[in-house]
Each structure stands twice: as C-alpha cells, then as structure tokens.
Design a protein that fits this description.
- The chain is of the alpha/beta class and 556 residues long.
- The chain has three domains: 8-256, 3-Layer(aba) Sandwich (Rossmann fold), CATH 3.40.50; 268-336 and 469-555, Ribosomal Protein L25, Chain P, CATH 2.40.240.10; 340-465, Ribosomal Protein L25, Chain P (Beta Barrel), CATH 2.40.240.
- It is built from twelve helices and 29 strands.
- The protein has a seven-stranded mixed β-sheet. The chain has a seven-stranded mixed β-sheet with strand order 23-20-21-22-14-17-24, with no helix packed on it.
- Helix 11 (301-311) packs across helix 12.
- Mean pLDDT is 96; it is low at 550-556.
- The structure holds adenosine-5'-triphosphate and magnesium ion.
- Adenosine-5'-triphosphate binds next to helix 2 and strand 8.
Length: 556
Amino acid sequence: MNDKPANFLTAVIDEDLEKGKHQKIVTRFPPEPNGYLHIGHAKSICLNFGLALQYNGECNLRFDDTNPEKEDQEYIDSIQEDIKWLGFNWAGEVKYSSSYFDTLHDYARHLVKEGKAYVCDLSPEQAREYRGTLTEAGKDSPYRNRTVEENLALFEKMRLGEFDEGACVLRAKIDMASPNMNLRDPILYRIRKVEHHQTGDKWCIYPSYDFTHGQSDALEGITHSICTLEFEDHRPLYEWFLDNLPVPANPKQYEFARLNVNYTVTSKRKLKRLVDESVVSGWDDPRMPTISGMRRRGVPAAALRNFSDMVGTNRSEGVVDLGMLDFAIREELNETAPRAMCVLNPVKVVISNVVADHFEEMAAPVHPNKEEMGARKLPFTQELYIDRADFSEDTTLSRKKFKRLVLGEYVRLRSAYVIKADAVVKDESGEITEIKASIVEGTVGENPPEGIKPRGVIHWVSASKSVKAKVRLYDRLFNHETPDKGEQDLMEYLNPNSLAVLEDCYIEPDAVTMPAETSFQFEREGYFVLDRHESSSDSPVFNKTIGLKDVWERKV
Ligand code: ATP
Ligand code: MG
C-alpha cells in the first residue's frame, strides 16, 4: 500500500512537507452516520487513509453527527466495520463532531460577542426570499443589527429550549450581497428538539455542517481536509470561520471529483429507499453498491483498493465504467481464489464400465499456477453430475463451436478420465434424466489412445460424494446507465432479473468446509463466495461475485 500513484494532492503534500509547513500530515474521513457506506465512500476512505499511510501520517475517523434525526448507532457500527474490512486503521479513538459541541457553542458565542453573528427570526420562507439568487444580491435581515447583549440572551434562550423549532436561528454576519451564496449570512445553529445518539438530551440546538466541519478539523489538527467538489463553494466559508475564531490550527480544504460509476447509485438517501421499500434484502444485499453489499457478494477488499487507485484522484467529474471494477475484481480473485468444481444445472451421468461402489480419488491443484496452495481431492464414483448445457444429442454440432460432450463422442472430465456418451434416458416429457457413459481406461493425466478425440474439457462432480448447494446469481440492479439521472424515477430502471436462485447445485465436498466468505473460482463458471450470513457446511449458500471473462480454452 506504500506505492501510490502521484496526484494533485500528493503534489500539495510533497510541497508542504518540503517547505516544513507540516512535519506530519493528518487527514480524516468524516462520514455522516445516516446510512451504510457505498463505493464512493470507499474511494474517499482509500484516498484519505491511503495518503496517511503513504506519508507515515495519520487519518482520523470522525462521525459528522450534526443531524441526529437521520443518524443511528447501526450506521456508526457498520461504518467502522467497513473501514476495518477495507484494511485501514484510524488514529486513536473514533471521533465525533458531537464531542466538540461545547467548544462549537463557545465559538458561536465568540462570534456573537465580536458582532459577527446574530439571532434571526425570519421564517424559512422569508429567509429564502431574503437570500436572493445567483444573479441577484440578497437583502439584510431585519434582525441583523440586534445588539451583542440581545443576541447573547436570545442565543442562550435558544439553547435552553425556550423557543419552538424553526422560531429562530443563529446566523453569521458576513455579506448578503456576496456572489457566493454560502457567505450570505449562513446558519450556524438551528433548534432541533431531538435526542442525539451521543449527547442525549443535552442539546436542543445543533450546529450546521459548515459551522462544524472546519472547526472540528482544526481541533483535531487535520492538515489536509479532503472533500468532494460540491464543497468547493463552501471553502471561503470554511476559511472565514477559521480566520474569525480562536482555533488551535489552520487546516486547508482540498476538493476532488466524486466517484460516479455507471449503472450504480451513490447516494445513501437513494440506497436507503431501496432498503426501505424492500427492493433488496438489506443494506448488505449483494446487489447493493455498498461496501458491505460488495463484501457479501465476494468482492475482495484488495480489489476495491486497487480500483480506487485505478480511477485516480483529480478535479474533473466523470463517470467510471463498472467494467473497471469488474477488472479489478477478476484480477484479484484470479490470483487468490482456490478453484473448485460446482455443477449449477446438473444432469446425471452413469458410468457403465465401473462397478456401482467404484471410488477413486482424483488430484487437482487448488490453484493452477500456485503450487503452494496445495492439492484437492476429487472423489470419482459411478454416478456423476455434469451441467446440462455441456451435453448435446446433436451430432452435427461443429467441434469448434461445441467443445463439450455429444452423444457418441468423447470429452475430458477435468482432472479425471476421458469419457464417451453412449446413450440417454428420457422422461415422458422428453427431458434427459440420465446420460449413460463409459470411461476410457488409462486417461487420467494421460492422453487418450490414437483415434479418440475429446471435444473439450468439462467440469463434473461425484453424485454421491458432492454436497448440494444453493447458488445465487446476481446481475446488475439497474438496467440504466444513470438510474438516478434518467427521465423517470430510479425505481423504473430496476432490472427485474437481478437475482436468480439455483437450489440444486452440486459442489466438490472440500469446498464447503472452508470458512464463510471464502471466495472460489468455480471452474468454467466464475467467482463465487460462501455467504457470510446464511451458509453452513450442511447447507452451503454461494453468491456469484462475477463471471469469468475468458472463455474456457484449454488443451485436452
Ligand atoms: P451521500 O450523498 O451518499 O450521503 P455524502 O457525501 O453526503 O454522500 P458523507 O457521509 O457526508 O456522505 O461522506 C463522507 C465522505 O465521503 C465525504 O468526505 C464525502 O465527500 C465522501 N464521498 C461521498 N460520496 C463520494 C463519492 N461518490 N466519491 C468520493 N467521495 C465521496
Ligand atoms: Mg453528507
């Protein structure tokens, strides 16, 4: 993790360190605990924690918890779990903006005393009207010239709960004519008579995001406060607070372009809708672009970190193709995933030239190019399963197009014998219930005799010694490239076929003894992971992570 690509932020940090502006860099990741983290947050985590690692600095985890109504302990817990799973550690204890509420309150009083803040009684509608527009200056609030004493007294009454919600707010006195709307006397404190998950009922006034963020950064000694571009226009306000308050440090805000991925929604609010309206099974449904959803789908943490590096860090907005994430996932899993054979759509093969209780153990590598990962044992018995799609009665199929088993012809069973399909048994509806086959003796690990030409290699399992498994196949959740920016509501773009469940799959026995969350490459099928919540060795459940890109092409 130490060899990160250079970007505009590393250029800034290099210069700051060179000039001695900082001895050590301190970054932070500041989620609002109002939902589970998604792939966009993963980018921000990898960036903030990654820079700290790269420069031997520190990165804080700070919950930006100024909106108690929407926040929840469940989200606080899941966010910590996701960050750890991604492979990062925050410096010291978890931090909360709410720990600074006393200091922020002092800061607000400081501004009031300096004549730089006032209590304003305009209703929200009036305030909007007074605010002006992008092309039109705002108007001063009639409450703008209240005296310091009056403001201190009113602000104290706000704190004591003597006013109703919405009756008044505390605002900074900056400039109602500023071309930057954020500087038109922004709100510092509002009344919210709600309990807070950290501070209980201590407060009924809560600071705004803008009044909280920079000061929290300063209190924690953050050197580089990295956020997404939508906060660029807030930077002058961020700096105004730092310039006008007795803060202990002077952090700098830098913005980068947020990560957008096609076919994906990256907004906690919209993802919450999918959960609330039961479109998915929960925040960690494997189809969700949440970190916990991707984890449950079998996406390795390393793939997310690599993806985050691949997309880079810059200041121009764009949409990243989901294929880039797929690439990172395959690259990682191809290297690390043990191989296994699993028949997803089974049809029975009965070998006529072995005895009924025939038992033989075939050996196969756990990973084709990693001997150190060891070998696996594949029980070979008289009755086997192969995939229905790997058999055809149509003898006219070209060998090039159909490299599988055809009636009257040969195929290699992966890591086992070459077999010949001799006959089929069908039920009344004409469906094949059994393929009668015979092995070609002496072909385990050996070429077949002259004249016998297998069409290809297929996967298989023993019928009696395999384990029945449930396999869930996932497709993308939305069938629109920009589901939340289309003409219709995002729910209109849901892919109706995003989940298919196969109840009767059969897998080689050793695979299911692996711990939950083990990822496998099912040969010829793709990458699958043992579900972390619903799987057991008796009734294993696998989630499909991603298909194999390359078609199966191997020497027989
Ligand atoms: P959402 O709209 O999903 O709630 P948010 O930005 O409001 O996102 P926060 O919890 O405030 O969510 O975000 C924590 C950090 O993650 C912020 O620094 C934010 O800039 C960053 N972040 C959020 N979404 C993205 C994204 N798509 N790409 C990069 N960084 C992001
Ligand atoms: Mg936010």
